[in-house]
TrEMBL record:
In the C-terminal section; belongs to the trehalose phosphatase family. The chain holds residues 4 to 488 of 760 of the full protein. This is Bifunctional alpha,alpha-trehalose-phosphate synthase (UDP-forming)/trehalose-phosphatase. The lineage of its organism: Bacteria, Bacillati, Actinomycetota, Actinomycetes, Micrococcales. GO terms for molecular function: alpha,alpha-trehalose-phosphate synthase (UDP-forming) activity; phosphatase activity. One of its GO terms (biological process) is trehalose biosynthetic process.
Length: 485
């Protein structure tokens, strides 16, 4: 790939994430075209990037091997990081998704520990840091995202003492007892503490992190201020750990519901399902943290004991393909598909499903139509940093109808108190919650949905990003005004 022109690459704001916000598409003539992937983070950063003169995004372009040369997209400079096939297997599928992911989600499946994976995580993190450090302007801001890149803040700090460094963890941070299992746990903590501001989804995550720092590193902690001792004669640095619950682009989602084609599609969806009285919907990446098995178990039992009549109530389960090369995900897919097959075999009326199972992706418009058609949405995560599906459903219901059943173990439960909150491990409780949601009178739905909407519309992803960056700005005056030679 062609080299980055460091001297000319001085960006006030640099985002570092595992993935770039674009996907490549090969055109008929063999050329590559880049298409923006409209994730929540991209949306959040768009509004931030508009307020700075020049923004950059550092990340992997999604294909192993040689990285494309830096390029411009949507008014941002994109700096692709190279990952070889072996890095993808060890750093990404291995240490990130088979070690950290299960451990940080309270060991729903056993985390795997392999020394080779750690070496690869370290090397890949270094590559991201080396790509990010030179592109920030003197005194600029670098915002690092998520569990794949926990060593990056410190690595950047070692090269650039003049920049502000923020880190946001999108997934939970586990209790110190669980975190202590992690080989190289102290390196992870020290890596994170290279940042000036560390953001977490819920208050309990922030407290867990601070407790781990206190217990495992023995650093002085005063509330959420952590004193990181300097090496040698270097002064003590103060690092803040705070809570910033992420959100969605609420207004855009809500406005989509006014689109007449999407409204028509919502009605058509119901007709296609045989015009049931009730539609119950689940939307998740096919991930063991999402509690899909628990949900199907509850649903199957409700059909078995006759509490739900499949002639008038249909469940749609959208399960986006995810991490299909990781063993636990293959196994989950098999189990989910077996269970759906069994439920349909036993309960589906001729010619229509009891559970309509969709193992593919939908675009935003189709997703909005689904939310508009759904009388009940089930979010039954066993552990989830936030869960944006819960917020998307609320934003899709300006009509103030529909019921959200929400797991206490999703970060969203801290804010969405008017949902029907459940412990998804308790199948009886989950069944009762589903029945309660299905029976909820319109006025009660309206009251709950009004309160939920107030929360989601007021606190959107733009506000989240601005809040984080404002606090980062406020807490740290960069040491020098010039980048090191
Ligand atoms: P995820 O684990 O991916 O995110 P979530 O917050 O629910 O979980 O976000 C999933 C997104 O993908 C939603 O916007 C949803 O609409 C979309 N999606 C799901 N299935 C889809 C499909 N079939 N087609 C199209 N879109 C689909 C991680 C953490 C979360 C945290 C987010 C953001 O695990 O806890 O909320 O990051 O920080």
């Amino acid at each position: 790939s062609s080299p980055v022109q460091h001297s000319s690459a001085e960006h006030e704001m640099v985002v570092v994430a595992n993935r770039l916000p674009v996907d490549s598409r090969t055109l008929p003539d063999g050329a590559t075209e880049w298409v923006t992937s409209p994730g929540g983070l991209v949306t959040a950063m768009e509004s931030v990037m508009r307020t700075v003169d020049s923004g950059a995004w550092v990340g992997w372009a999604g294909a192993p091997g040689e990285a494309p040369a830096p390029f411009e997209a949507d008014g941002m400079s994109l700096y692709p990081v190279r990952l070889e096939q072996e890095d993808v297997e060890r750093y990404y599928e291995g240490y990130s998704n088979a070690t950290l992911w299960p451990l940080y989600h309270d060991v729903i499946v056993d985390p795997e520990f392999h020394r080779g994976w750690w070496d690869s995580y370290l090397a890949a993190n270094r590559r991201f840091a080396e790509a990010a450090a030179p592109v920030a302007a003197p005194g600029g801001t670098i915002w690092v995202h998520d569990y794949q890149l926990q060593l990056v803040p410190r690595m950047i700090r070692d090269k650039r003492s003049d920049v502000r460094i923020g880190f946001f963890n999108h997934i939970p941070f586990p209790s110190v007892e669980l975190f202590s299992q992690l080989p190289k746990r102290n390196s992870i903590l020290r890596g994170l503490l290279g940042a000036d501001l560390l953001g977490f989804q819920r208050e309990s995550d922030t407290l867990n992190f601070v407790a781990a720092v206190r217990k495992l590193l023995g650093y002085h902690v005063d509330g959420t201020t952590i004193s990181v001792p300097g090496i040698g004669a270097a002064p003590v640095r103060e690092v803040q750990a705070r809570t910033f619950p992420i959100s969605i682009d609420s207004a855009t989602v809500s406005e989509l519901t006014e689109d007449s084609a999407i409204r028509a599609r919502a009605e058509e969806l119901r007709r296609d399902l045989g015009d049931p009285e009730r539609i119950v919907l689940g939307v998740d990446r096919l991930d063991y943290t999402k509690g899909i098995r628990h949900r199907l178990k509850a649903w199957g039992e409700l059909l078995d004991d006759g509490s739900i009549d499949p002639h008038d109530t249909v469940m749609i389960q959208v399960a986006t393909p995810s991490r299909e090369r990781v063993e636990a995900y293959r196994q989950l897919r098999d189990e989910v598909e077996l269970t759906v097959g069994r439920i349909n075999g036993e309960h589906a009326p001729l010619g229509r499903p009891a559970v309509s199972y969709q193992h593919h992706s939908f675009d935003r418009r189709e997703m909005t139509a689904l939310f508009m058609a759904a009388d009940v949405v089930l979010v039954t995560a066993l552990r989830d940093g936030m869960n944006l599906v819960a917020k998307e459903y609320v934003a899709s219901r300006p009509d103030l109808q529909g019921v959200l059943v929400l797991s206490e173990f999703a970060g969203a439960a801290d804010e969405l108190r008017a949902a029907v909150l459940v412990n998804p491990h308790d199948i009886d409780e989950l069944k009762a919650a589903i029945l309660r949601a299905l029976a909820m009178p319109a006025e009660e739905q309206e009251e709950a949905m009004r309160s939920l909407r107030h929360q989601v519309m007021e606190n959107d992803v733009q506000a989240w990003a601005h809040d984080f960056l404002q606090q980062l700005e406020a807490m740290h005056t960069p040491a020098g005004d010039t980048a090191p030679a």
